[in-house]
């Protein structure tokens, strides 16, 4: 793209410095490039009109033609509102209401004038009204309007300064007129030909102001394909560069691994675990640095795979680190692995925030000398004072809890040769999201549960069934089992209100079960108090644990067999699945009970039905992605990878797969993009600033 698109937006006719400053603050819009890529989020089909009698509260946004008859200001001061009556040609009436910009609206709204009104209809006292509708005066000669009208994201602050969707539309219209000569093709002619893509200029014109449904669809496909192609190209190039440039230690010896298999492994590995170990072993003997993501549902046996990988490192004179996000998880990993390490005569240590000074000194010494082969810990491992003799393997558990900078601090602990990296997660990631977030990693999946694991029975019960549920809890405790009861804690602003939910819940549980001991854990507790309560539960001193969602991912209490989730409709699907994974860790049958009131939204019903129907984390993650979008699912906003302009990972999986295949083919054939047919792509990448995440952006 030419320098034209670097022009500051204040130079576009009608914007100027003051409006430009507002657009920068509110929409991150600095240049012509930013403006032309501010795509509409929906379109109004201005060919469809409803009569007031046909309206229904379930309709999202509708368009009505009518005449304003009477308007009046109601209320005083800050509570003042403007109300107007709209009458359609059938004589039916609807009220239009404004709570903001009242004075300006009152001046500009003309009485006894015909308007097209667009907004969300709501019913109040048997009469329909619309709050803050969009208005367009219906002049005689303008009875028919254009085919599809774009609607752009804006903000309340911009609207208060008269920059609404229509004004943005006018800016883009005038920009497109002067931009036509500067829009260059950014894809190779081969790609355009192979995928029958429309050209870039036509795509930009028709995404904003479609001339027909066909042209709109072609523009949308072209821009989505281009965006996903460049994201994949960036990730795959990183992978190629890393493979070419980064050497890794070669781990060929496996005597201890063999001994472990023969004499100490008390259960059979699943087919999936064996396949993943083979994939890892292949990486470790390749001479290149391993960078692998290991995905596996809760309880699928990732930890034993991690331990075997650590043994391979130890067999080859290298040290390994296993880093977990919390002390509870680090303790759990350490306890589980120490048993095996002791049998094999391998020295393993643990370093967390609560490690004593004397312990730390010894650990630091043993790590520097190379005497200690394995260490498990938390962020404490990242401190500069922690130095290694030869760090060869870094394993990070629940890796999305750690920032990129934190992880790279660990890699830098071996200045001679970068360690192999294995990141593990029990959060099932839909394939489209994994390809976009971790497209530069090799992905291994443990998609099989160990033999003898019973599926967790999940049921949905309404509040009116509470007595029966409580009786079931008593029966389970009599069998020696333990119970989790989780309450929601949704947003900061609601924290106190929900905190009360938890306190009320705690009191009612104590009243309902006076004969049993009850623990309570929530986010406001100090770390040591939280730990103390968790440990009481682990030691079976308490039978019931009342908690918010702070009960950690991966906490292992094999004896806990019932998970009750209160107000289950207030949780996301992946969160419900994570919570359910706290039980089902022992040999006994486990249960998850989802408690709700009767009033449920359509999405809530879908989430609850999915939970009852399946235990498959990947299927659940796919449905969750469709319901919630990628940002919410993984907290990916902070990762910067999903700087998407037009694609939707929940809906565009087929385009993503095509785009990735196209990027792979090009890089295999021409890794440096030197061939003549790839010059458009090369030129476009060169025009970008170094920190651009989404390479499809106009720089």
Automatic annotation (TrEMBL):
Q: Which Pfam families match?
A: DEAD (PF00270), Helicase_C (PF00271), RecG_dom3_C (PF19833), RecG_wedge (PF17191)
Q: Which residues form the Helicase C-terminal domain?
A: 471-631
UniProt keyword annotations, A-Z: ATP-binding, DNA damage, DNA recombination, DNA repair, DNA-binding, Helicase, Hydrolase, Isomerase, Nucleotide-binding
Kindly give the SMART domains that the UniProt entry links to this protein. Answer: DEXDc, HELICc
> InterPro entries recorded for this chain?
ATP-dep_DNA_helicase_RecG, DEAD/DEAH_box_helicase_dom, Helicase_ATP-bd, Helicase_C-like, NA-bd_OB-fold, P-loop_NTPase, RecG/Mfd, RecG_dom3_C
Kindly list the residue ranges recorded as spanning the membrane: none
User: What are the Helicase ATP-binding domain coordinates in residue numbering?
Assistant: 283-446
Entries under Gene3D superfamilies matching the protein? Nucleic acid-binding proteins, P-loop containing nucleotide triphosphate hydrolases
Q: Which Gene Ontology terms cover its molecular function?
A: DNA helicase activity; hydrolase activity
User: Which protein family is named in the record?
Assistant: Belongs to the helicase family. RecG subfamily.
Function, in words: Plays a critical role in recombination and DNA repair. Helps process Holliday junction intermediates to mature products by catalyzing branch migration. Has replication fork regression activity, unwinds stalled or blocked replication forks to make a HJ that can be resolved. Has a DNA unwinding activity characteristic of a DNA helicase with 3'-5' polarity.
| Protein's UniProt name | ATP-dependent DNA helicase RecG
Q: What is the lineage of its organism?
A: Bacteria, Pseudomonadati, Bacteroidota, Cytophagia, Cytophagales
The gene designation is: recG
């Amino acid at each position: 793209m030419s320098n034209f698109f670097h022009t500051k937006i204040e130079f576009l006719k009608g914007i100027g410095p003051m409006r430009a400053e507002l657009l920068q603050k509110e929409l991150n819009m600095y240049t012509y490039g930013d403006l032309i890529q501010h795509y509409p989020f929906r379109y109004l089909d201005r060919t469809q009109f409803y009569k007031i009698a046909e309206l229904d509260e379930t309709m999202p946004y509708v368009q009505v033609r009518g005449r304003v008859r009477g308007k009046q200001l109601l209320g005083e001061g800050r509570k003042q509102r403007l109300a107007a009556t709209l009458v359609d040609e059938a004589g039916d009436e609807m009220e239009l209401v404004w709570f903001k910009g009242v004075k300006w609206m009152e001046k500009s709204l003309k009485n006894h004038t015909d308007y097209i009104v667009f907004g969300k209809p709501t019913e109040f006292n048997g009469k329909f009204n619309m709050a803050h509708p969009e208005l367009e005066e219906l002049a005689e000669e303008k009875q028919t309007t254009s085919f599809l009208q774009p609607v752009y994201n804006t903000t309340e602050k911009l609207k208060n300064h008269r920059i609404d969707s229509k004004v943005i539309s006018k800016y883009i219209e005038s920009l497109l007129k002067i931009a036509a000569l500067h829009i260059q093709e950014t894809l190779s002619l081969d790609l355009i030909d192979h995928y029958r893509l429309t050209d870039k200029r036509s795509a930009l014109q028709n995404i904003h102001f479609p001339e027909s449904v066909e042209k709109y669809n072609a523009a949308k496909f072209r821009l989505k394909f281009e965006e996903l192609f460049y994201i994949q190209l960036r990730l795959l190039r990183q992978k190629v560069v890393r493979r070419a440039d980064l050497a890794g230690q070669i781990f060929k010896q496996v005597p201890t691994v063999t001994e472990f298999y023969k004499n100490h492994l008390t259960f059979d590995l699943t087919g999936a675990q064996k396949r993943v170990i083979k994939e890892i072993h292949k990486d470790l003997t390749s001479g290149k640095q391993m960078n692998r993501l290991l995905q596996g549902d809760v309880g699928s046996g990732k930890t034993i795979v991690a331990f075997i990988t650590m043994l391979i490192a130890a067999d080859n004179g290298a040290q390994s680190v296993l880093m977990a996000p919390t002390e509870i998880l680090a303790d759990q990993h350490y306890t589980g692995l120490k048993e095996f390490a002791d049998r094999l005569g391998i020295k393993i240590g643990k370093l967390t925030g609560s490690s004593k000074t004397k312990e730390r000194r010894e650990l630091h010494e043993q790590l520097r000398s190379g005497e200690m082969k394995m260490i498990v810990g938390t962020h404490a491992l990242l401190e500069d004072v922690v130095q290694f003799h030869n760090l060869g393997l870094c394993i990070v558990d629940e890796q999305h809890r750690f920032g990129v900078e934190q992880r790279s601090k660990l890699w830098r602990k071996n200045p001679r040769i970068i360690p192999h990296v294995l990141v593990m997660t029990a959060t099932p990631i839909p394939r489209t999201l994994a390809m976009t977030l971790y497209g530069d990693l090799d992905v291994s999946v443990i998609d099989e549960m160990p033999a003898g694991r019973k599926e967790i029975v999940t049921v949905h019960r309404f509040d009116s069934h509470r007595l029966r549920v409580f009786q079931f809890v008593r029966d389970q405790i009599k069998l020696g089992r333990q119970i989790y009861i989780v309450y929601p804690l949704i947003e900061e602003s609601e924290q106190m209100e929900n905190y009360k939910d938890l306190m009320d819940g705690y009191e009612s549980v104590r009243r309902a079960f006076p004969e049993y001991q009850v623990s309570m854990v929530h986010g406001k507790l100090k770390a040591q108090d939280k730990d103390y309560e968790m440990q009481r539960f682990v030691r079976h001193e308490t039978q019931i644990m009342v908690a918010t969602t702070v009960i950690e991912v991966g906490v292992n209490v094999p004896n806990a067999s019932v998970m009750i989730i209160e107000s289950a409709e207030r949780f996301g699907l992946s969160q419900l699945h994570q919570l359910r994974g706290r039980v089902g860790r022992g040999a006994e049958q486990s249960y998850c009970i989802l408690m709700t009131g009767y009033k449920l939204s359509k999405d809530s019903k879908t989430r609850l039905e999915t939970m009852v129907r399946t235990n498959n984390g990947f299927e659940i993650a796919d449905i969750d992605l469709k319901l919630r979008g990628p940002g919410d699912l993984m907290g990916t906003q902070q990762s910067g990878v999903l700087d998407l302009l037009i694609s939707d990972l929940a809906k565009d999986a087929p385009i993503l797969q095509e785009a990735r295949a196209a990027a792979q083919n090009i890089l295999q054939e021409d890794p440096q993009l030197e061939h003549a047919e790839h010059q458009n792509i090369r030129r476009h990448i060169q025009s970008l600033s170094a920190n651009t995440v989404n390479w499809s952006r106009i720089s």
